[in-house]
Amino acid sequence: GAVVSQHPSWVICKSGTSVKIECRSLDFQATTMFWYRQFPKQSLMLMATSNEGSKATYEQGVEKDKFLINHASLTLSTLTVTSAHPEDSSFYICSGGEGGIGEAFFGQGTRLTVV
Amino acid sequence: AQSVTQLGSHVSVSEGALVLLRCNYSSSVPPYLFWYVQYPNQGLQLLLKYTTGATLVKGINGFEAEFKKSETSFHLTKPSAHMSDAAEYFCAVSDRQGGKLIFGQGTELSVKP
To answer: Under DSSP, is residue A107 helix (H, G, I), strand (E, B) or coil?
Structure first.
């Protein structure tokens, strides 16, 4: 199957700083990228959907000014957690798809810890 | 709107025993259904999916699931559990392939020796 490479796999940052998470589609063009958040022992919740070259669509309750998503190319999407706080500590996972043609493929996830 | 309910947050079976993980869905459009497995601190791996056609779907590692429209179910089974099957399993629904996924709460599978 296709590969989505997500980096970093884990990061620890200080409260108030920003963290950027990258997802790259290695062997296909990810016209659509989904960003999910998973709290410990819980399910994955969709945060936002981004399409290459356009603004992301955020799910209800997700702060778009806090979770900045950029999808400037067909192979790269980034999620920036701005002014991170301990409550933002979570597992973030991206998933890239070819715009509804095939299935979406998941990255390895990023464990964010804000101290 | 779509939703998924997984019955049982934790299932424990003995090695060699049948694995049955339950999933019921709600969808106002024909659903696309998926089962994923997640190992600790890792992403999700697709086990199998139902899109259209045959309602009995076979996946990787000996897993299979049957789409039952009348019961709005998509239960996951494996005839004989292996220790390596211990993981978290998620059922998900979408309105299309490559679309956003709505996940169930997850079921943690434990396999006893």
So the answer is: coil
